[in-house]
Amino acid sequence: MKEIVESLIQQKETVATMESCTGGYIAHSITNIEGASSVLRFSAVTYSNEYKMKMGVLKETIDTYSVYSEEVAKEMSYQIHVFANATYGIGVTGKMNRQDPNNERGEENVAYFSIYDSKQDCYYTKKLLLPLESRERCKEFIRQEIETTFLSVLKK
Length: 156
Known about the structure:
By secondary structure, the protein is α/β, with parallel strands linked by helices. The chain has one domain (2-154): Maf protein (Alpha-Beta Complex), CATH 3.90.950. The protein is built from six helices and five strands; from the N terminus they run αβαβαααβββα. The protein has helices spanning 2-11, 25-31, 49-54, 59-65, 70-84, 135-154, and strands at 15-19, 40-45, 88-95, 110-117, 122-129. Strands 2-1-3-4-5 form a five-stranded mixed sheet. Helix 2 (25-31) links the parallel strand 1 (15-19) and strand 2 (40-45).
């Protein structure tokens, strides 16, 4: 994340995150880097559908595609960018090695992330097949994938 923070500082850009399955791990990883306070505008952990909707994700999107979907990740990334007035928004949702009695639909051991780029008005999304390992390892795997994707976006 060091290269991401440095690049955001150099480009005078900002980022905000709305995370579900990663529980704030992406924001945590950003804030481990010196200078992060000048680029991280806001972070929300929205584990429940209720709070995803309070942050702007449409109930219809959750009902139509499942909370564990690319469409929800895209809305999360867009809505957090709007809420925080950030250049980039990152949204993460997924199901890690467990059943969710509140959301039975959606693939097992799959996560989706989206990076919304307000400068280009476009999304960079990815579906990840999660390793059948600890939640901590899954979070790190997702972080690595987001880091790789975000770096490529920042270099465009």
